[in-house]
Automatic annotation (TrEMBL):
It holds the Pfam family rve. GO terms for cellular component: cytosol. Residues 25-186 form the Integrase catalytic domain. PANTHER family: TRANSPOSASE, TRANSPOSASE INSI FOR INSERTION SEQUENCE ELEMENT IS30A-RELATED. SUPFAM superfamilies: Ribonuclease H-like. GO terms for biological process: DNA integration; transposition. Gene3D superfamilies: Ribonuclease H-like superfamily/Ribonuclease H. GO terms for molecular function: nucleic acid binding; transposase activity. This is Integrase core domain-containing protein. It comes from Devosia psychrophila. The lineage of its organism: Bacteria, Pseudomonadati, Pseudomonadota, Alphaproteobacteria, Hyphomicrobiales.
Length: 187
């Protein structure tokens, strides 16, 4: 019997774990690292009660936030919802997306083909490599505590929360709002 199958019998895991082939964060362009050019995004899932989730996207240059309602956490649902959200953005705001090692982006190649947006993945257990997104998720916990059933939150409610976050002055932006910073870029 193969070793990985044998081991899975003792961990009560019916399937052996497989590694998703990813593009590591160290291959991300330098312009994304120093936040000089807009269009580089960080993404993650915000988990709620009863295995409910929303997608959070934060633009690295302006800290502009987009929230996307998810019906399920599987890769097909997440990729379709992200592709729809990214598709609404102007071309100059679609350069790259940085994600964690979660299996929800297992179909990242189909996402890249659909949106022409390269996906880079952080190193395992390295949330600081997506610092803006982790900070935003902390701010979102003021609106959606862990006990919140996110399936009962509508996309309109998510848009209202994103609007509040995008109109909130940030010290890191010299007390500009993310919406103002993004507007300057688009002019």
């Amino acid at each position: 019997m193969r070793r990985d199958i044998w081991d899975s019998l003792f961990t009560h895991d019916a399937r052996p774990h497989t590694k998703i082939l990813t593009v590591p964060i160290r291959e991300r362009p330098a312009e994304a690292e120093d936040r000089a050019i807009p269009g580089h995004w960080e993404g993650d899932l915000l988990a709620g009660a009863n295995d409910t989730n929303i997608d959070t996207l934060v633009e690295r240059h302006s800290r502009f936030t987009m929230l996307v309602k998810l019906a399920r956490r599987d890769s097909a649902t997440v990729v379709a919802a992200l592709a729809k959200a990214i598709g609404t953005l102007p071309e100059e705001l679609r350069r790259s997306l940085t994600w964690d090692q979660g299996k929800e982006m297992a179909r990242h190649k189909s996402f890249t083909i659909a949106t022409d947006l390269q996906v880079y993945f952080c190193d395992p257990r390295s949330p600081w490599q997506r610092g803006s997104n982790e900070n935003t998720n902390g701010l979102l916990r003021q609106y959606f505590p862990r006990s919140t059933n996110l399936s009962q939150v509508s996309q309109d409610q998510l848009d209202a929360v994103a609007l509040q976050l995008n109109q909130r002055p940030r010290k890191t932006l010299n007390f500009e709002t993310p919406a103002d910073r993004l507007q300057k870029v688009l002019q």
